Automatic annotation (TrEMBL):
InterPro entries: Leu_rpt_41 (IPR026137), LRR_dom_sf (IPR032675). Coiled coil: none annotated. The gene is Lrrc41. Residues 326-337 have a biased composition (Polar residues). The keyword Ion transport does not apply. Residues 183-283, 316-343 are annotated as: Disordered. It comes from Melanocharis versteri. This is Leucine-rich repeat-containing protein 41. GO terms for cellular component: cytoplasm; nucleus.
Length: 715
């Protein structure tokens, strides 16, 4: 029953010899130590020989700590992947396959084929035959297209059967067992057919047997278990006018194109033949090959092959009504994920198109995050094709990827995914520097395509100068009708756009289940706009529990602020950097306090960055006075120019109210980040010590003088 946390904390100091980041938020030092220990040993940051307790030939640091690792980050040249797939770390990799949940890639660089082969084996074991549910990639300014597409493809669960997933010259053992199980199916089906023939041709013999004997004999034949195939089912509609090997693209293919095409065909390029058009006859399905690469070293040909008119096996030549030959590229899913948006059009030959039908389908991850990784047109098309059938995907985060018009391509893939009966997609977060279209228009686009979303976050820093010019042939999303949605959380950061309630109204009307709304960096075009918004919220969102405004000037909207604080349905209200007290009087602060005192449903009030100062902070303590019916639990007064003497006075007043109420108040959490508490360390320590006896206090060691100097330097 004794906690070992202090022991692991001391081990951290002895072995790591560094101060852990965000140590206040660490809940389990054992887990933190072992995960960091594993990562540092793997990447050579920690020298095991430097500590006598670890320098033992019978002790394997990676093997010892691997069962406790739930997230792992691979960096730079993927040295960690090479080490983990080495023969002597086979048991380590097996442990990670059971424990690892989050796999991260950061600051990746281009690598050669041998390293890519190690990465393939690692991803195959940890994702396809492991427990990894989230793949995140960070900070890749100039991504290696081959490597990026390889990671995306394997994260989506696609890889070809019988490829170069060789571990020291032999195929993956788990795949081999699976193939062996599947190879028993034809014999089993033959037994069924024989049984049927016998049943039909030997009625006389069966009639001689009793019904019980006949049933027992039949059950004995059919009793062998059948494991469901992991691969995509082979196309069985032989009467289709399209080839079974679907792809998706727009534009024609140039015979001299240097574009690269993602393909899963194991046949070398010289042996591929173009499919002949089907005119009044059945088409034969392309069968997946279980053979190995002709050259096991050549993973590049799997990821990309050059699409040439004279040797492409994925083009279907058909005739248009004008009698011209065109090359139609069809999606592997129902409907083409990418259908002619400006962000998807190509001048050269089609590139980056993934042939899903020819791939072996494995387990895939449920969360994909891409941070600060530029995505080209070709990469967006490949991602769109992967998304169109990625049924296990629940969360997608695209942050600073330079999407611009390519967002239409991504949405096309997600739209195709949403039609899938097993779709689990629920969370979409898009953040970028420039907005290709107004924020509200994009929100309408997304909700029109994905009515099953639960969380949508759209965030942009700046307006695109060419925002007014929309792609040709792409109708304005502002005219699209929004079906009733399942949306529960909506977050919008405007690039200094005006907030027009009329544009937000259709979204709110379609989102009856909305529980949380966040509006960031919006401007109010007229004084009446906020009042209109409150009326719409009251009418259309009866389940709204959390409302947040950030960097929205509310200095002249005191009446609306008080109305929000009176709302009996809201449990959390945030006014962050909203200039609440910029031009207010003392009466306004008193009205805020009295309103909160009467509201028994409000649980959290966040007021960071509103220039409270000492005197307003002290006044806020009256929220918990003896005559208050408030249920406020959390108060955030970060970045409010609070000094140590003001915090101490607030603490004393709060202690007085607690005594008057018999020692019980609902207040449990106080946030004090980035205040001027360093100006008098002794007074600040006393105030914090007394406050922590009342509630949980979260603060930081902030240098206010340096922050003020930085502020002056950028003015």
């Amino acid at each position: 029953g004794l906690s070992t946390q202090p022991i692991w904390r001391k081990l951290w100091d002895d072995v790591m010899k560094t101060r852990p980041p965000n140590s206040e938020s660490i809940t389990c030092w054992r887990k933190k130590f072992l995960e960091t220990f594993f990562s540092n040993v793997l990447h050579g940051v920690l020298d095991v020989s430097s500590d006598w307790r670890l320098n033992d030939r019978h002790f394997s640091p990676l093997l010892h700590s691997s069962p406790h690792v739930s997230q792992l980050t691979l960096c730079n040249m993927l040295q960690g992947a090479v080490e983990l797939t080495a023969e002597h770390n086979h048991k380590v990799l097996e442990n990670l396959a059971g424990s690892l949940r989050i796999l991260k890639f950061q600051h990746l660089l281009s690598c050669d084929k041998s390293i890519r082969r190690s990465l393939v084996l690692l991803l195959h074991r940890l994702i396809h035959h492991g427990s990894v549910s989230q793949v995140s990639m960070y900070s890749w300014p100039v991504p290696d297209t081959v490597l990026l597409v390889l990671i995306l493809t394997m994260s989506a669960g696609f890889w070809r059967s019988g490829n170069a997933l060789a571990c020291h010259g032999s195929p993956c053992g788990l795949c081999r067992e699976e193939d062996k199980a599947q190879s028993q199916e034809p014999a089993q089906e033959g037994a069924e057919r024989g049984c049927n023939a016998e049943r039909e041709g030997s009625n006389g013999e069966n009639q001689k047997r009793s019904p019980k004997e006949a049933e027992a004999r039949m059950n004995s034949v059919l009793s062998s278990p059948r494991s469901p195939p992991l691969r995509n089912p082979v196309c069985e509609d032989t009467s289709s006018e399209e080839p079974c090997d679907h792809t998706s693209s727009q534009g024609g293919s140039s015979p001299h194109s240097s574009s690269e095409q993602l393909s899963c065909h194991p046949v070398p390029r010289k042996t591929r033949r173009r499919l002949k058009p089907a005119v009044g006859r059945k088409r034969r399905c392309l069968r997946r090959s279980r053979g190995r690469f002709a050259d096991p070293e050549d993973l590049y040909d799997f990821v990309f092959t050059v699409a040439r008119e004279d040797n492409s096996g994925l083009l279907d030549k058909t005739r248009t009504t004008e009698g011209e030959n065109t090359e139609n590229w069809t999606s592997s899913s129902s409907g083409s994920p990418c259908t002619g948006h400006a962000g998807c059009k190509k001048r050269g030959g089609p590139a980056g198109i993934f042939s899903l039908k020819a791939a072996h389908r494995f387990r895939s991850v449920s969360t994909l995050e891409l941070f600060s990784i530029p995505l080209t047109v070709e990469t967006c098309r490949t991602l769109s094709n992967l998304l169109s059938s990625w049924v296990s995907l629940e969360n997608l985060v695209l942050s600073y990827n330079g999407l611009n018009a390519n967002i239409s391509c991504i949405l096309s893939g997600l739209r195709a995914l949403s039609r899938h009966p097993e779709c689990r997609f629920r969370v979409l977060r898009v953040c970028d520097m420039f907005s290709h279209m107004p924020c509200m228009e994009l929100v309408r686009c997304v909700l029109s395509a994905l009515p099953q979303l639960h969380t949508l976050s759209v965030s942009f820093d700046l307006k695109n100068q060419l925002e007014g010019s929309r792609p040709e042939g792409n109708p304005s999303c502002s005219e699209a009708e929004i079906p009733e949605s399942c949306l529960e959380v909506l977050e919008i950061r405007f690039p200094r756009e005006p907030l027009h309630t009329a544009f937000l109204l259709p979204v709110l009307k379609a989102s009856k289940s909305l529980q949380q709304l966040s509006l960031d960096s919006a401007t109010l075009p007229c004084p009446q706009e906020l009042g209109l918004l409150l009326e719409v919220l009251k009418e259309c969102t009866p389940n709204l529990k959390k409302l947040s405004f950030h960097d929205v000037n509310l200095a002249e909207h005191q009446k609306e602020v008080l109305l929000l604080l009176q709302d009996p349905g809201l449990q959390e209200i945030t006014f962050s950097f909203c200039r609440l007290f910029e031009s207010s009087t003392a009466e306004f602060l008193s009205e805020i306090i009295n309103t909160v005192k009467r509201n028994s449903s409000l649980k959290s009030l966040k007021l960071p960055g509103n220039r409270l100062g000492n005197h307003r902070l002290v006044a806020l303590a009256d929220i918990f006075s003896e005559d208050s019916s408030s249920s406020l639990c959390q108060l955030d007064v970060s970045s409010n120019c609070i000094k140590p003497d003001g915090l101490l006075e607030f603490t004393k007043k709060l202690e007085g109210h607690i005594q008057q109420r018999g020692g019980q108040i609902p207040f449990t959490h106080l946030r004090l980040f980035q205040n001027w508490l360093d100006q008098d360390a002794e007074t600040a320590q006393e105030a914090l010590r007394r406050l922590k006896a009342v509630c949980s206090v979260v603060n930081d060691s902030w240098d206010s003088s340096q922050a003020f100097a930085d502020y002056i330097s950028v003015m």
